[in-house]
């Protein structure tokens, strides 16, 4: 079997696995391996191969593709040593599958994925349907209620945000089970900074919601003359009362987008029976 045929068979099997999770990724273009050295990667190859072309081009620069190769080698070694890594490797780049850089309307930057079993799904702050809503996301829902009058949703799955052009990006895209921040020095920051730079350059104007000091540090990468940059404390229970609750970022984002003809985000979801709070 030719190597390319083998890769396509692997991707078709991966597509079936994603459909079983309730996720249906698009099939990639036959020339999907834009990123140099991806054929030599083991851990990240399936997720990279299914990325839309616009994001592959961002990651295809020599410096970033070399960085990805270094990350891939470390992830493969950790997995071989028995480490449990979140999110599942096919969802590492899940945030990029929903929208191209030029079409993004809102960017929300998190720090790293949830480190509990079954929580991380490749979208910052989001958890799959049926998973207990984490404390930070509960505070996000509290702010939505205060700001927009939206009843808290029953689920913590934020895929409906992503589908509307909200990029839910973590600064580090992987983490090990029960070890918060464990991949903070793995080398993800140059990669995710490149993704932020791509949005900054290619997008006609979007809203960056920067929550917490870690996200605030990304402000210097953003052209504030073209984009809207809103800062607040992190929604974690440790800091939410110090500037996140009451920030009104959701209404401000929608107002800014509407004034520029980009449409508002429908932030609400299916309402929790009996109330979440």
TrEMBL record:
GO BP terms: base-excision repair, AP site formation via deaminated base removal
Gene for this chain: ung
Protein source organism: Vogesella indigofera (Pseudomonas indigofera)
Role: Excises uracil residues from the DNA which can arise as a result of misincorporation of dUMP residues by DNA polymerase or due to deamination of cytosine.
Protein name, entry field: Uracil-DNA glycosylase
Molecular function GO terms recorded: uracil DNA N-glycosylase activity
EC class of the enzyme, as a word: hydrolase
Entries under InterPro entries matching the protein: UDG_fam1, Ura-DNA_Glyclase_AS, Uracil-DNA_glycosylase-like, Uracil-DNA_glycosylase-like_sf
Keyword presence, Iron-sulfur: no
EC number(s) stated in the UniProt entry for this protein: 3.2.2.27
Catalysed reactions, as listed in the record: Hydrolyzes single-stranded DNA or mismatched double-stranded DNA and polynucleotides, releasing free uracil
Record bears the keyword Acetylation: no
Keyword set, alphabetical order: Cytoplasm, DNA damage, DNA repair, Hydrolase
Enzyme active site: 112
HAMAP family: UDG
Subcellular location: Cytoplasm
SMART domains tied to this protein: UDG, UreE_C
Domain annotation Uracil-DNA glycosylase-like: ranges: 97-257
Any Gene Ontology CC annotation: cytoplasm
PROSITE patterns named among the record's database cross-references: U_DNA_GLYCOSYLASE (PS00130)
Pfam families linked to this entry: UDG
Family stated for the protein in its record: Belongs to the uracil-DNA glycosylase (UDG) superfamily. UNG family.
């Amino acid at each position: 079997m030719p190597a390319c045929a083998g890769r396509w068979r692997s991707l078709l099997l991966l597509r079936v696995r994603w459909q079983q999770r309730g996720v249906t990724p698009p099939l990639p273009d036959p020339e999907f391996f834009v990123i140099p050295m991806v054929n030599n990667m083991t851990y990240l190859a399936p997720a990279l191969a299914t990325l839309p072309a616009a994001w592959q081009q961002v990651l295809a620069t020599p410096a970033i593709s070399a960085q990805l190769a270094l990350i891939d080698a470390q992830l493969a070694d950790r997995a071989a040593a028995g480490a449990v890594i979140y999110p599942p490797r096919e969802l590492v780049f899940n945030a990029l599958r929903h929208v191209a850089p030029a079409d993004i309307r809102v960017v929300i930057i998190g720090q790293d994925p949830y480190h509990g079993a079954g929580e991380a799904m490749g979208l910052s702050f989001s958890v799959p349907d049926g998973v207990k809503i984490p404390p930070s996301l509960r505070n996000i829902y509290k702010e939505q209620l205060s700001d927009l009058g939206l009843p808290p949703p029953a689920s913590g799955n934020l895929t409906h945000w992503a589908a509307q052009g909200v990029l839910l990006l973590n600064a580090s895209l992987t983490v090990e089970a029960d070890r918060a921040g464990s991949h903070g020095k793995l080398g993800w920051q140059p990669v995710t900074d490149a993704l932020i730079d791509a949005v900054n350059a290619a997008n006609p104007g979007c809203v960056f919601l920067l929550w917490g000091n870690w996200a605030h540090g990304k402000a210097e990468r953003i052209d504030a003359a073209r984009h809207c940059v809103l800062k607040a404390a992190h929604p974690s229970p440790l800091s939410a009362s110090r500037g996140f609750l009451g920030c009104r970022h959701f209404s401000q984002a929608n107002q800014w987008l509407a004034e520029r003809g980009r449409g508002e985000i429908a932030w609400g979801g299916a309402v929790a029976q009996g109330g979440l709070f």
